[in-house]
Specification:
single chain, about 750 residues, alpha+beta, Rossmann fold, 5 domains
């Protein structure tokens, strides 16, 4: 039942209305009875009148009253034409209709809109006297923006429609010319629903082709922020192809300043996404600006997305390594000798021999580092055939090693042996770090009479850890010719979330999968590697240290990379991700130390984040639980360029560690992407409009001319949920209660 009293409109169901009237009648009868029984009729009339008024207001609110006002427009109805001015409109894939160009020339989407707007098809709209025409563009990049900044400006269809609705009170219809490709703001469906409630239809004219232009796009480059001087770094990249044929081409990586260049021949499959990587050797400590590019292929339309630039720095790194084992087996000896001779590695060894006790000599320590300040200096720990108990490690020491990995971003390498001591680690704090499941029934491992090879998986073939050659082309041949192993750990399978780089060439598990023997995983802030055989030393056959030393050197540097991003005297800092894109949130992790080098137990870590424009944001990192002096915080990167990150502790504010975070933006608006007419079809359908193709534009005048005049804009204020209604009722109830007390009624 709907009715109104002046500008207050009520809408209540019949049974609510009937019950409300009955309740009011009962209340009125009770009020009359109370007045007749009262010895003070005047006061009783006032009190019961107040009671009845409160009852009437409550009943009225149950009828959902609304205060409605209408704004009567004084101008003609308005038709707004919205044209897309984003960067994607430069795509040359729009064919002009026959009525505009008999040759049906293919032009850019923006040129197509200009030609259509000036044609006779739209001239008829301007001649109409029943309504006015307003033309507006949306999502145009800043006028003074360069190409990179312009590509970061997206398309917000929802905002364009909502702003048009909110700024006009006599809107008849909206005509939108766009490719439908939105990438900013919320879903435009919400704006279409508002248009439907206002009875404003959307007439959408799609621009552009639904088929992507023939193109090769260098979509993504993931480079490390620094590398070790004289060592190779791996530069992964992704290429997207919309060509209908395979393309044999060459990827070139060159230094902009020194003109040094490396290249790699690749074959990009037709219409697919191609993942690969190229190697680059760091020459010196200076920041180098590198450009990775692919040549323009035959038939390719867009040339601007075939190259990307990034910066990378070189460092002279000193890595601290701890090697722990129980027997001086061959693998232990050659790992120790290889790392001991490496000028970039400082190695300590702890030999826990079951009969002879701890080892002694140059580079040996006599006991496990029990103090956090001694243990935290190690970047990588090699754990051989070592377990818990029997004069080896204790549970507390295992807990310290786990904290070193998870809280201090160090790395740990597990190399089991034939004694099976590592099985005792399974129930220790280190058990969760071991990335494989082993067979407890074969603790001594498995021996073969002939040697077996370690085969790389597809993931291992593309990993820098397994890159033993100077070029990627020779690496598979090197692994094919490496000497094999006779003993391996009783591995059943790898745990979930791990990366299997190498498998047994001959043996399979019960599931039919090859046994994983070279496995890595991330654990907390650190890294873990498991090698399921102890015969990597045999790779020295005929070549001495060439491959054995290179493999373990790469492992040590891979594990210490994140930990040494920004290392100072009192603070060590690292980021995830280390090359963010605008819009991403970066996690800043820090480890703080006191003047003695022990993890900081009190005080705060303060970080100053300075954006490319020079604006500084100061934040205090949150301390993690435990005694490792670990802190973390998050900051959002909102623009491209170099972000300076400076960190210090409140106990030593003069000891500042400085670092630079490079934010390289991926283009939001890209030329050459296909149009999305399905978006416009949905918006038009919801708003009760229509999608008009270029050959049907002559129907536009007739469609708009047949629309009814827009209704006056009505504003509704729901009184039943308004705060003022509650205030009035509570005030009247309070007045009624006070009156009862003054009247002596309890």
């Amino acid at each position: 039942m709907n009715f109104r009293i002046f500008q207050v409109h009520f809408s209540a169901s019949p049974w609510v209305f009937a019950l409300s009237l009955i309740a009011l009648a009962i209340l009125a009868a009770l009020c009359v009875v109370a007045i007749r029984r009262s010895q003070r009729p005047v006061r009783a009339v006032l009190l019961e009148g107040t009671r009845f008024l409160v009852g009437c207001l409550v009943v009225a609110l149950l009828w959902q009253p609304e205060w409605r006002t209408q704004k009567i427009p004084t101008s003609k109805p308005e038709v707004v034409i919205l044209t897309d001015a984003s960067l994607s409109m430069k795509t040359v894939d729009a064919r002009l209709p026959m009525a505009v160009d008999p040759r049906q020339e293919v032009v850019s989407r923006s040129s197509w809109i200009d030609r259509i707007m000036k044609s006779d098809m739209f001239a008829g709209l301007n001649e109409q006297s029943e309504f006015t025409i307003t033309e507006e563009s949306f999502s145009a990049p800043p006028a003074d923006a360069d190409d990179e900044l312009a590509s970061m400006s997206g398309t917000d269809i929802r905002a364009a429609l909502e702003n048009t609705l909110e700024s006009r009170d006599n809107l008849l219809a909206v005509i939108m010319l766009t490719d439908g490709d939105w990438n900013e703001g919320g879903a435009p469906v919400a704006a279409a629903q508002k248009m439907r409630s206002r009875k404003v239809p959307l007439f959408a004219i799609p621009v552009g082709s639904q088929t992507r232009l023939p193109d090769l796009e260098l979509a993504k480059v993931t480079a490390p922020t620094y590398g070790i001087i004289g060592e190779n770094v791996q530069i992964p990249f992704i290429i997207k192809s919309s060509l209908q044929r395979d393309v044999r081409t060459t990827v070139r990586l060159r230094d902009i300043n020194s003109k040094l260049e490396v290249s790699k021949s690749i074959t990009i499959p037709a219409g697919a996404e191609y993942h690969d990587a190229v190697l680059w050797r760091i020459q010196d400590e200076q920041n180098a600006t590198l450009e990775i590019s692919i040549p323009v292929a035959q038939g390719e339309v867009v040339e601007s997305n075939n190259s990307r630039q990034f910066t990378i720095s070189g460092r002279n790194e000193s890595i601290k390594v701890l090697v722990i084992d129980t027997l001086p087996r061959w693998e232990y000896r050659f790992i120790r000798n290889a790392l001991y001779r490496d000028p970039g590695v400082d190695v300590d060894c702890l030999m826990l021999h079951p009969q002879l006790g701890t080892g002694d000599g140059p580079g040996y320590i006599q006991q496990f580092p029990e103090d956090l300040e001694e243990l935290q200096k190690y970047d990588v720990v090699f754990l051989g055939d070592v377990g818990i108990g029997n004069d080896q490690l204790t549970s507390k020491q295992a807990e310290l090693l786990r904290g070193l990995v998870e809280q201090q971003a160090s790395g740990i390498v597990f190399i089991p042996g034939p004694q099976g001591n590592q099985f005792t680690l399974m129930d220790s704090p280190l058990g969760d770090l071991i990335p494989v499941i082993m067979d407890a029934k074969q603790k001594e491992g498995i021996r073969d009479s002939v040697d077996s090879k370690l085969n790389l998986t597809s993931q291992g073939a593309g990993s820098l850890l397994t890159m033993l050659g100077d070029t990627e082309e020779e690496n598979p041949e090197i692994w094919k010719n490496l000497p094999g192993f006779y003993w391996h750990a009783p591995v059943i399978k790898a745990k979930g979330g791990t990366d299997v780089l190498g498998v047994h060439a001959n043996r399979r598990n019960q599931s039919g999968n090859r046994i994983p023997l070279l496995v890595t995983q991330l654990s907390g802030n650190g890294k873990v590697l498991f090698l399921g055989h102890d015969s990597a030393w045999r790779w020295r056959r005929g070549v001495e240290d060439l491959y054995h030393y290179r493999f373990w050197g790469q492992v040590a540097r891979w594990m210490s990379y994140q930990r040494n991003m920004a290392a100072g005297e009192r603070v060590r800092m690292y980021f995830t991700p280390d090359r963010p894109a605008p819009g991403e949130t970066v996690t800043i992790n820090a480890n703080a130390f006191d003047e003695n080098g022990a993890p900081l137990e009190s005080g705060e870590v303060i970080v100053d984040v300075i954006d490319p424009a020079g604006k500084t944001q100061r934040m205090a990192l949150t301390r993690a639980e435990g005694a490792w002096g670990a802190y973390s915080g998050r900051v959002k990167i909102n623009q491209t360029g170099a972000w300076k990150v400076n960190a210090f502790t409140t106990l030593a504010s003069d000891k500042v560690v400085e670092s630079t975070l490079i934010a390289q933006g991926a283009a939001i608006e890209m030329i050459g992407q296909p149009a999305r007419p399905e978006v416009l079809d949905e918006l038009s359908r919801i708003s009760q409009g229509r999608v008009l193709q270029s050959d049907k534009l002559s129907d536009l005048i007739r469609e708009i001319g047949s629309l009814p005049a827009p209704k006056p804009l009505e504003t509704r204020t729901p009184l039943w949920s308004h705060w003022l209604s509650a205030v009035v009722i509570i005030s009247l109830l309070g007045l009624f209660w006070i009156g009862r007390k003054l009247n002596g009624t309890f």
